[in-house]
Write a structure and sequence with these properties.
The complex is a heterodimer.
Chain A: H1 11-38, E1 41-43, E2 50-52, H2 56-62, H3 65-98, H4 103-111, H5 118-129, H6 135-142, H7 153-181, H8 185-193, H9 198-227, H10 230-236, H11 248-258, H12 262-287
Antiparallel strand pairs in A: 1-2
Chain B: H1 2-22, E1 24-30, H2 34-50, E2 54-60, H3 64-76, E3 83-87, H4 91-96, E4 101-102, H5 104-111, H6 122-125, E5 138-143, E6 145-150, H7 151-156, H8 168-180, E7 187-189, H9 192-203, H10 210-213, H11 227-241, H12 254-259, E8 265-269, H13 273-279, E9 284-287, E10 305-312, H14 317-331, H15 333-343, H16 350-358, H17 361-364, H18 370-376, H19 392-407, H20 413-434
Parallel strand pairs in B: 1-2, 1-3, 7-8
Antiparallel strand pairs in B: 3-10, 4-10, 5-10, 6-8, 6-9
Helix pairs in contact in B: 5-14, 9-11, 15-16, 19-20
Classes of the chains: A mainly alpha, B alpha/beta.
Chain lengths: 293, 436
Amino acid sequence: MEKRVTFRGWLLPLVLIAPQVMISAIFFFYPAGQAIWQSLFIPDPFGLSARFVGLGNFEFLISDKYYRASFITTAVFSLLVTLCSMIPALFLAVLADRLIKGSGVYRTLLIWPYAVAPAVAGVLWLFMFNTRVGVVSWYLGHLGYDWNHVLNGGEAMGLVVVASAWGRISYNFLFFFAALQSVPRSVVEAAAIDGARFWRRFFTVILPLLSPTAFFLLVVNIVYAFFETFGVIHTITAGGPQQSTTILVYKVFSDGFVGQDLGSSAAQSVILLFVVGLLTVIQFKYIEKRVHY
Amino acid sequence: MKKHLIGAVAATAVLSPIAAMAKTEVHFWHAFTGRLGELVAAQVEDFNAGQSDYEVVQTHKGNYSETLNAGIAAFRAKEQPNILMVYEVGTATMMAAKGAVKPVYQVMAESGASFDPDAYIGAVKGYYTTTEGDMLSLPFNSSTPVLWVNRDAMSAAGVDPDSDMSTWEHVGDVLDQLKAGGEDCPLVTAWQSWIHLENFSAYHNVPFATQDNGFAGLDTELSLNGPAQVAHLSAMGQWAKDGKFIYTGRRNEGGANFRAGECALFTESSAGYAGISSEAKFDFEVRPLPYWKAVADEPQNTIIGGASLWVMEGHSADEYKGVGAFLSFLSTSDVQAAWHQNTGYLPITSEAGDATRASGFYDKNPGTDIAVIQMTAKQPTANSKGLRLGSFDQIRGIIDEELEAIWSGDKSAQEAMDSAKERGDALLRRFEQANR
């Protein structure tokens, strides 16, 4: 049964949606349209001339094996960031939910890292793992492990993932914690009376009830990993060593603003737009079906 | 604060017509902070105080890339400054931007300011002049790579600090001894592509790219995968594997290790002088950059890094007069000699170098003239005049990646440089397309 409230006439609904339409038009449709237009040209940096190349920029990108490799890097990176930020967040939320005393303090402390800007977080982690003065790398050295993310691609990836996921744990924690609080006590108690122990109750009763929140966080975290981790990568690795941490959005920046190749940069952002659009459609079409609201 | 701001705006609004009649403003965007920023500000103040026709307004616009980007964005918005500082890597981009920049030789001729292109040191000027010899931008801060030696670390490892390190062959022996003597960090470098490929090629008089390193045309291709470069990088790769060369990063991260006394040898810009002399708590020394005896009997000259000043199009004749006056002020011997002595950057005119020598500065600060000698000992050839490659910042990024593959042992030097050439050439072709 769906309830519908309908407006009489057109004027009022139009006026009401106008602000949102305008915001979308100015901050989304217009720049996106510009990017699509620019992706068809090879301009010089100063905007003195532009050569129309049709889909030439896209051909150039697709034939570049490093660009193709960047897709895999991005997929690995986003997956790891999403997992590393959601699983610990859920774990912490469950623990904080069980606390009887002092949960307010824990909650507040756990939310703190969210206030740290990605670039600052990047610098913090960089200092801890700095191959020369880092506390963590010094300790690892004592354990006999030679940490060098400057040359080791795997370590570099690990470091940017941890630095990106760290602040995000707080954000996810908040949502999981709120969702846990809204799980009806009666179902949990019923399961307890049936003899289910805590972890069994968690996996069979609580987790399914959290699925809408988990799904929402999945979408939001993937979008975060795609776009907002720029600051972390820029401060820690600048895409290196070799290209092991060059994710798609970082390449858009480095080609456009370091290399002044605005045509290629625009084409990359158009591709990125489609990739994220596609991902979101897939998520809503397939994963959402398994979510219980 | 707000009141103050409104007051300031009102004051500007009232005063500016009068000020504009009295003084022509010349806007100068640069990339210097800290000590260097102060020195630039002082130069500008001196110029403003020394005459009453023009007022130079200097603004810091971020690091080198950010300053270039700010200049480009401002040009697109038709709000470009009169003078823009551009690092040497952006030279080809600026040169190709006909209609956006006004060549310095033209500015000087029109403004009637005194200007003698021959007064500038050839190896510095060469980077910024056309093949016909016309100066396009004014060299501002230029440095060149040298070998820094931690004499205490050498002695501690039982190596004679006065060992001959004029050639890489000798350096190889010293590295063996340092390693055997228990030194954990025998050699580090800063700016690996600049020092170990770009300068390496010039110093051994082999091409880095075809078409006179890009000076003769946009249809240039990289030739950094030649036998000389590959031999050097193979040796470096072997040293990296043996723990004799320690890689610390793409920029000048190694400087921190060296200044802290952790490393024995350090290849870095001569402009590292300010930092090293103030921080190093050990006995240090500057040596000329080593060369391979097997490749060249004697070294050619090294090339520069740093930035030059570009004059932007689209301003009034009056402002260009001011620009001309300011640029000739910057080139005067006193200004240049002070700049050279304070920063470790090269003097851009031979006269400033002579003045510095005459003042006894080199005797008091031994080694500070090595960079000058290294650059000026020989007349630059087509291979050692400099580099003029489009998308060069990105190409350096590619080279950095490929060098990392050598240091980690993932690729041989030949494979890595072949790949760098292939990837770099693709970008050069795109640049050619964009600027045809």
